[in-house]
Structure formats: structure tokens, C-alpha cells
Write a structure and sequence with these properties.
Length: 611
């Protein structure tokens, strides 16, 4: 049965019961009406007839007395008038014989009344013939009074009989009414009870499956997909239960698939993690360890059971490493810390190993940070190769310096003594040899300086001096070159500059290198400005030119050794800025460039101010 039909059946039962109660009430009302009607038709008419007969009879009796007392005409007329009243009421009573004994009484009234009338007829005849009136009252007493009393008593008897019957009928009607009230109340209460029980039953039958659905949905949302809603009925709810079970099964299937996929992905990630030789640690936002590979365990000397949700901050001792992790957590992005600040060394068994570390954020939902992958790449071999290379370059440069110096001196002497006697072509060759030896000397000196800086073998000769002294020195050195290229050298010194503690020659070297680069790249008629100002605890020195500018990808690269911008011939060796960086770093400062292609460049470096 469909749900709709069930609900309609429920309503139908209620309607039928209501109809029953109404029908019963109507039937009771009808029978009550009939009982009342019976009283009216059976008794009331007879009582009325008996009353009127009595009335007519008493008036006739008065008319009779009038006649007997001598007023024959009036008495006679009144008697006849009342006679027709009596007869008509008697006829009505005869038509309404409904109770036992009534017929006999009417018969007696009829007989008595006929006798009464005959006697009156005889009396009127006698009166007409003899016209005597003296014996009136005696005649009435002897002849009429007994007959009159007889008819009167019968009429009263008829009235009383009907009154008694009417009382009995009224009692019966009362009984019928009482029965009707009780039976209607009983049937009404029974119908209500049945309707209530049936409604409760039906409501339960409909509500139970819905409760089952609610329970099943709750289980599914709690992750229990193996639920089954019982299919108890064949209606729409049964159909819904079947569809629901199918959906739950499908969800279960997807869930299992998902779990399989997640497990597979996890295993894959673990396999990758374990197969990498570099140390890798995966931490969450609170730096609790989520994953660690054998290389990292070995590096941080951690045993397997210790790592489960251990806080990584307690494991690391290196300040830079801690800072990098914290910065990555705070910013939610990979930080742009330079490589040289991302190196950490570990010593074990008298062996020191160097690692380059990097922290990559793991982004979760809505691209918010959910963890960090820390990679420590072993660069010990790389460092060793770098060291060997530096040592070799240093040794080679050192060895080259003496022959180049004597070569330069020889060429200088040659130029001094015999150049005037040589043909012009040979003089040019000699000049070219002089220039190349000079270039070679500069390169070798630069190389030696750079590697000495890198190896920490250069000692700074620190002294206190005002920046203006260096500006003066540089102005006199570059005045001529600038004039030749018609370039204006502008010096901007902010007032009340503090002194700096630095190696004046080396700082002059840095500024000279920056200005000579600027001169090289600035077109004739351009401007180069040199500025110094105090910002915070630092003095910022900058060289600004109007040259071709430097592409963004070179902004940090040009400070590395031998790096030159592609397709831009400089005639230099690519070591100048690298030496500048080493000198500035040795003073505890930093150097950087701000530039856009086509809009010139500004090189700035800092020195700590002395108050
Ligand atoms: P070198 O000048 O000897 O090549 P540097 O280390 O001084 O070496 O400079 C490295 C490179 O940086 C240069 O080759 C040049 O391409 C670029 N460069 C340096 N200064 C400037 C500048 N002011 N404007 C444009 N490019 C520059």
C-alpha cells in the first residue's frame, strides 16, 4: 500500500467512525421524535376531545336546567348547539382509539349520551304538549342527573385513561432520550478511541522509518558508511529506504577507494622520503615532526620511536635554521634568505659536514600553511671542491704575479728606452702589450684579493673617519674621466653625518669600483650621483647612474664571481662587485642594487655608524 493510500485510509477510518456516530445520533433523534409524536397523536387528541366533551356536556346540562325551569326556547337552542359540539368531539375521540379500554369507554359514552339525548327529546315533547313546569327539578333529579353523571364520569375516565397513558409514554420517551444520550456517548467515545489508536499506529508506522533515516544519516556523517536502513514497507518510504541503502553502499565504496588512495599516496610519499639521500624533515605548523627520513634521523641523532610528534625546535641548535623555520611559519611562504646564510655544519667523530638547508611551505586548504618540508642538502664535497679551487687559483695567481710584474717592468723599460727608435707599428704593439699586462696584473691582483677575503686572510685596518674624506679622494680620482665623458659627478652628503669605523682604503676601493662601473655604462652628458645618509644605526652610501639598468634576475647574481650580464661587453672580469661584497661584509654591512632596465641603477652599501 502506498504512503498516500495509508494516510487516506487513516482519514477514511476517522470519517467512517464520525459518520457512524452521526447516523446513530440521527437515529436516536428520530426515535425520540417518534416517541413525542406518539404522545401527541395517541393521547393528546383524546384528552382534548374528552375535555371538550365534558365542557359541551356541562353546558347542555345547564341548558336542560334552563328548559326545566321554564325557559324552554333558550334552553332547547343551547342544548342543540352543544349537542353538535359534543358529537363532533366524540367522533374525533372515536377516530383516535389507540389504547386498551378506550373503545369500551367511548362505547359507554356513546350509549350514555344517546340515552341522555333521548330523555331530553322526550322532555321537550312533553313540554310542548302539556306546558307544565312545576315538576322540573324533581324530574331532573330522577331522570337526567344519573345519566348526565354517568356520561360525565365516562368522559373523565376517558381523559384520565389518556392522561395516564400520556404520562407512561412521556416516561418511555425519557427513557429513549437517556438511552440515546448514553449510547451516542458510548459510540462517540469508542469511535474516538478507535480513531486515536489507529492514528497513533499509523503515525508510528510513518515516523519509525523516518527515525531510521535520521539515525542512518547521523552514522554516515560520523564516518560509519556500513549502515543499512531496514526496508519494512512496500510504499514510498520502503522505496526511499532501498535508494538510501544503495547510496550508503556507494558512499562506502568511494570512502574505501579514498582510503586506499590516501594510503597509496602516503606510502609513495614515504618511499620518496626514504629514498632521498639528503636529510628531510616534515613538520606541522607547531614544528611537531610529522615525517623524517633515515638521513635526517642520522644527522639529528634521533631513534625511530622518539620522532613521533616530537617538537623539532628542541632538536635543532643552529640559530639560522631555527630562524628560517620561524620566518617560513610566520610568512607562510618560502623565504628569500641568501644561500650563504643557509649553511649549517655538523661535527661528529671529528668530521665536519656542511649542509645547505631550505624550508618549503606545505599549503593546505585555501592555500593556508599546513606544514613545512625542511631539506638539508649535503654540500661538504662541494665546499671541499670550492676550497681546492680557491687554493689552486690563489697559488696560480701568486705564481703568476711575479712574472707578470717583471714582464710589465720590462715592457715599461722598453717603452722608455727604445720606443722613439722603433717604427710606429712596433710602438703600437708595445703599447698593446703594456695594456694587456696591466689588465692581467689587475685580474691576478683582484683574484688574490678575493680569495684572501673568502679565506679570511685579509685584515682590515680600521680607523675612525668622516665619509667626506673618501668623497674628496674619489672626486679627485674620477674628475678627469668624468670630464672626458662630459658626465656630471654629483655628491650629496646629508648634514651631520656620523663618523664611520672602517678600512678607508678598502671602502674607497668599493666606491671607486661602483663609480667606474657607473662611468662605463652612463652615456656622454649623463649624471652620476654619490649620496650618503644615516638611516637608523647605519650609514647608507649609494652610487646612482643613468645607464641601461640591470634585469631583475641579475640583481643578486652580479655580486657573484665572474658573473657578467649576458650580451653586455664590459671589458672587465666580473670580479669587481664580488670583491665589493666581501669588503662590505667584512665591515658588517650589506650591499644591493635597485634597478630597472632602461632606468639606470642605484648600488647601495651600508656601514655601521659610530655616534
Ligand atoms: P666587471 O665590471 O669587471 O665586469 P663587476 O663585478 O664590477 O665586473 O660587474 C659585474 C657585471 O655587472 C658587469 O659585467 C655588468 O654587466 C654589470 N654591471 C655592474 N655595474 C653596472 C652598472 N652600473 N650598470 C649596468 N650594469 C652593471
Amino acid at each position: 500500500m502506498t504512503l498516500k493510500r495509508k494516510i487516506l485510509t487513516g482519514y477514511s477510518v476517522a470519517f467512517i467512525l464520525m459518520g457512524l456516530v452521526i447516523a446513530w445520533a440521527i437515529a436516536n433523534l428520530v426515535s425520540l421524535g417518534q416517541a413525542t409524536n406518539a404522545i401527541l397523536s395517541e393521547n393528546y387528541k383524546s384528552i382534548l376531545a374528552a375535555e371538550n366533551m365534558l365542557n359541551a356536556l356541562e353546558r347542555q346540562d345547564s341548558a336542560l336546567l334552563l328548559t326545566l325551569l321554564g325557559n324552554g326556547n333558550d334552553g332547547n337552542e343551547e342544548f342543540r348547539n352543544r349537542e353538535s359540539d359534543f358529537i363532533s368531539w366524540l367522533a374525533r375521540a372515536s377516530d383516535n382509539i389507540t389504547i386498551k379500554g378506550e373503545a369500551e369507554l367511548i362505547q359507554a359514552i356513546k350509549a350514555g349520551y344517546a340515552d341522555y339525548r333521548n330523555k331530553f327529546a322526550v322532555l321537550t315533547d312533553q313540554r310542548r304538549q302539556s306546558s307544565e313546569s312545576d315538576t322540573g327539578l324533581a324530574t331532573y333529579q330522577q331522570i337526567f342527573y344519573p345519566t348526565f353523571m354517568k356520561v360525565r364520569e365516562d368522559c373523565i375516565g376517558l381523559r384520565n385513561l389518556n392522561e395516564e397513558t400520556m404520562y407512561a409514554a412521556s416516561l418511555r420517551a425519557n427513557n429513549v432520550a437517556r438511552r440515546a444520550i448514553w449510547s451516542t456517548a458510548f459510540i462517540g467515545v469508542s469511535a474516538l478511541t478507535i480513531a486515536l489508536v489507529f492514528s497513533l499506529f499509523l503515525a508510528e508506522r510513518i515516523a519509525q522509518p523516518i527515525k531510521n533515516f535520521a539515525e542512518a544519516s547521523r552514522k554516515i556523517s560520523a564516518g560509519d558508511y556500513a549502515v543499512i536502513v531496514p526496508v519494512e514497507t512496500d510504499d514510498e518510504l520502503g522505496l526511499l529506504a532501498r535508494e538510501f541503502n544503495q547510496m550508503a553502499q556507494q558512499l562506502n565504496h568511494y570512502h574505501e577507494l579514498n582510503i586506499e588512495q590516501i594510503v597509496a599516496e602516503k606510502n609513495k610519499a614515504e618511499a620518496i622520503l626514504y629514498s632521498i639521500e639528503d636529510a628531510i624533515v616534515v613538520v606541522d605548523n607547531n614544528l611537531n615532526v610529522n615525517g623524517i627520513n633515515p638521513a635526517a634521523k642520522m644527522l639529528f641523532k634521533l631513534d625511530a620511536p622518539d620522532t613521533a610528534s616530537m617538537n623539532f625546535i628542541n632538536v635543532i641548535e643552529n640559530h639560522d635554521l631555527k630562524e628560517l623555520l620561524q620566518k617560513t611559519i610566520d610568512s607562510g611562504q618560502q623565504t628569500k634568505t641568501p644561500e650563504e646564510q643557509r649553511i649549517v655544519s655538523f661535527t661528529s667523530n671529528d668530521q665536519t659536514r656542511h649542509y645547505l638547508f631550505s624550508a618549503t611551505p606545505v599549503l593546505g586548504k585555501e592555500r593556508s600553511l599546513s606544514g613545512i618540508v625542511l631539506l638539508l642538502k649535503d654540500i661538504t664535497r662541494l665546499k671541499e671542491v670550492e676550497r681546492l679551487k680557491s687554493e689552486f687559483v690563489m697559488a696560480a695567481s701568486h705564481e703568476l704575479r711575479t712574472p707578470i710584474t717583471s714582464l710589465g717592468m720590462s715592457i715599461d723599460l722598453l717603452q722608455e728606452h727604445i720606443s722613439t727608435t722603433l717604427p710606429a707599428k712596433d710602438r703600437e704593439l708595445l703599447q698593446a702589450a703594456h695594456e694587456e699586462v696591466h689588465r692581467l696584473k689587475t685580474l691576478v691582483n683582484n683574484l688574490l684579493d678575493l680569495y684572501k677575503f673568502e679565506a679570511g686572510k685579509i685584515e682590515l685596518e680600521l680607523e675612525l673617519f668622516p665619509i667626506s674624506t673618501i668623497f674628496e679622494q674619489v672626486r679627485s680620482v674620477f674628475k678627469n674621466q668624468a670630464n672626458i665623458k662630459e658626465i656630471s659627478l654629483i655628491f650629496k652628503e646629508s648634514e651631520q653625518l656620523p663618523l664611520v669605523r672602517a678600512d678607508a682604503n678598502k671602502i674607497a676601493w668599493v666606491i671607486s669600483n661602483l663609480i667606474s662601473n657607473a662611468l662605463r655604462y652612463t652615456d656622454r652628458g649623463g649624471n652620476i650621483s654619490l649620496a650618503a645618509q644615516k638611516i637608523g644605526t647605519q650609514v647608507h652610501l649609494s652610487v646612482r647612474d643613468e645607464g641601461p639598468g640591470i634585469p631583475l634576475e641579475y640583481h643578486s647574481k652580479i655580486f657573484q664571481k665572474f658573473v657578467q650580464i649576458k650580451d653586455r661587453e664590459s671589458g672587465g672580469s666580473g670580479l669587481g662587485l664580488a670583491i665589493c661584497k666581501e669588503i662590505v661584509r667584512a665591515h658588517g654591512g650589506a650591499i644591493w642594487v635597485e634597478s630597472e632596465p632602461g632606468k639606470g641603477s642605484t648600488f647601495t652599501f651600508t656601514l655601521p655608524a659610530v655616534e
